[in-house]
Design brief:
- This protein is an alpha/beta fold and about 350 residues long.
- Helix content is about 35%, strand content about 25%.
- It has helices at about 65-70, 75-85, 85-100, 115-125, 140-145, 160-170, 185-190, 205-215, 220-225, 235-240, 260-270, 275-280, 280-290, 320-325, and strands spanning about 1-10, 15-25, 25-30, 40-45, 45-50, 105-110, 130-135, 150, 175-180, 195-200, 220, 245, 250, 305, 330-335.
- The strands form two sheets. A nine-stranded parallel sheet has the order 12-11-10-9-8-7-6-5-13, with helices on both faces. Strands 3-2-1-4-14-15 form a six-stranded mixed sheet, with no helix packed on it.
- Helix 3 (about 85-100) packs across helix 4 and helix 12 (about 275-280) packs across helix 14 (about 320-325).
- About 50% of the residues are buried.
- The site of zinc ion has 6 residues, from strand 5.
- Zinc ion binds next to strand 5.
Amino acid sequence: MLLEGTILSGPEFEPVEGRLVIEDGHIDSIEHATARTDNIILPAFINAHTHIGDSIAKEAGEGLSLEELVAPPDGLKHRLLAAATREELIGSMERTVSLMQAAGTGAFIEFREGGVDGVRAIKEVLDQFETEGIILGRETIEAMEQADGFGASGANDGEFSRERNATARAEKLFGIHAGEVDSSDINPALDLDPDFLVHMVHAEPLHFERVEDSETPVVVCPRSNAATDVGLPDIRSLLDRTTVALGTDNVMLNSPSMFREMAFTELISDLSSVEILQMATRNGAEIAGLNCGVISEGMEARLLVLDGDSDNLTGVQDPVRAVVRRASISDVSEVIIP
Ligand SMILES: [Zn+2]
C-alpha cells in the first residue's frame, strides 16, 4: 500500500513531502518525492480516556455537579445506565465507536461500567469496527479478568488494593481517577502504584514530585474538566515530569472528538502543537502498550489521512498547527487501521 502527501513523520511530526510505503500493516519506508496530492498523513489518534457506555445520556443533567452527574452508584449517569436496556446500550455505543473511527481514532482506553456484562457488551460492539478498544472493567475483579485491565473510580470511593493486586497478577492495565475535584485522593491513588492516573487537575508540588519519581503516566481530559467546572490541569508541569496523554472522558459530557480535545487544549495551555499532537497519538499509545502513534519504519501503520485541500484546510502554512487547531472530522479522507 502506498500513501502520498505531506507525511508528519517521526516523533516530532516533521512534515515530509513524499510517499509512505506500508507492508503487512507496518510502515516500511518514507520516500521523499513530489506529492501529487495535498493529503496530510499522520498517526491515528489514541483517545486515552473514555466512558462510551454513557452515550445513552448525551447532554443529560445540565447544571448538576460532578458528583450528581457521574459519582457511582447514584449519580445521574449510573441511574440512566441502570434504566437502559442492553439493546439501547449496545446501539448507542455502536454509534459512538462509529463516530470515533470516522474522526480518526485508531484506539481508545475505555473505563467500562456494568461489570462482566458491560465488558461483554462493548466487546460485541468492537467486533464490528477496526478501531481498537482497550477495555478496563470497573466494578469487579471478574470484569477485569474478562477485560484488558481495571479502571478504578477514585481512591475516595473505595479501597482498591485487592483489585490492584489482582490486575498486577494478571499483568493487565490498572488506571485510576485522581485529583479531579480536589487533591485528597491523589496520594492514596499513587500508593496503589497505578499504570496511569486520570485528571490530576488539583495536583500539588508533592504530587508532581511523586508522579516524576514513580514515572506514572497521566491522562488529562481538559474539556471534561471545563464542562464539570472543577478547574483545569497544569499540563505543562505534568508534561515536564512524565508521559501525558489526552482523553475525551464521558460521552455524556463531550463528543469523543480528539480534534476538539486538541483544539481546546491548545487554547487553555502554553503547549506547542507538536506536544499536543504527541499527547493525542504516541503518548496514549505508550500507555496502552501499542506500537503506533509515530510514523517511522517498523511502526504499525495505524494512520489518519486528511484532505489538505478541503475548504477548511486549503492553504495552511503549518500542517501540525492546522491538525491541532483547525482540522475536524469533515477533513478526514481515510482512516487506516491494520
Ligand atoms: Zn473518567
